[in-house]
């Protein structure tokens, strides 16, 4: 996915916040709105957290299907939503990257996450028997956080358009 901050970088003028008095909350909001790596990472975490709530709600709602069908269904829906939000909000690439391309690139990384979380849920089921929904969701959140970091790196640095040659 094309990362706009890699294609054009702003010069940093002065020290961070030296020209105005801002508190920590204003600084965080400024970073989230910014185009740099920190802003992208913060937006990535916010989108990931939001879509994890969607995942948890779907997982609980579909629990009557069994943990694996509920997990796969919730993962597919929340991943499509996350990919689109990352394309539009996190990386601000909606003008440069087509919807299908974003789904394909991020979806490939998600398959690794789906296999890891499914294996973790299978392990939990075989070792803990009938684990609570809270335990199952907590396990998926922990594994997904690790996979999410890998996904951020892939979307930020691996799936980006080549730099435009000024020659």
Descriptive notes:
The chain is mainly alpha-helical and 167 residues long. It has one domain. 71% of the residues lie in helices and 0% in strands. The chain contains six helices and no strands. It has helices spanning 4-7, 24-33, 37-61, 67-90, 99-128, 133-158. Helix 2 crosses helix 3 (37-61), helix 3 packs antiparallel against helix 4 (67-90) and helix 5 (99-128) packs antiparallel against helix 6 (133-158). The relative contact order is 0.14.
- The run of helices and strands is HHHHHH
Radius of gyration: 19 Å
Beta-strand content bin? under 5%
The assigned structural class equals: mainly alpha
Instruction: Count structural domains.
Output: 1
Rounded mean pLDDT is: 80
What summary fits the major beta sheet? Answer: none
Determine the fraction of residues in helical runs and give it as a percent range: over 70%
| Poorly predicted regions | 1-15
Shape call: globular
Number of helices: 6
Give the beta-strand count: 0
Distance between the termini: 24 Å
In short:
This protein is mainly alpha-helical and 167 residues long. It has one domain (36-158).
Tell me the layout of helices and strands:
Elements: H1 4-7, H2 24-33, H3 37-61, H4 67-90, H5 99-128, H6 133-158
Helix pairs in contact: 2-3, 3-4, 3-6, 4-5, 5-6
């Amino acid at each position: 996915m094309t990362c706009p901050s890699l294609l054009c970088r702003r010069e940093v003028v002065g020290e961070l916040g030296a020209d105005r008095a801002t508190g920590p909350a204003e600084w965080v909001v400024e970073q989230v709105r910014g185009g740099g790596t920190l802003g992208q990472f913060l937006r990535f975490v916010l989108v990931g957290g939001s879509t994890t709530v969607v995942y948890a709600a779907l997982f609980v709602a579909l629990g009557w299907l069994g943990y694996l069908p509920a997990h796969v269904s919730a993962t597919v829906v929340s991943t499509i939503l996350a990919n689109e939000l990352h394309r539009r909000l996190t990386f601000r690439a909606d003008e440069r990257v087509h919807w299908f391309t974003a789904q394909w690139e991020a979806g490939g990384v998600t398959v690794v996450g789906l296999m890891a979380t499914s294996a973790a849920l299978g392990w939990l089921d075989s070792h803990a028997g009938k684990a609570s929904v809270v335990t199952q969701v907590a396990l998926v959140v922990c594994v997904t956080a690790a996979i999410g970091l890998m996904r951020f790196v892939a979307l930020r640095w691996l799936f980006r358009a080549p730099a435009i040659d000024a020659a």
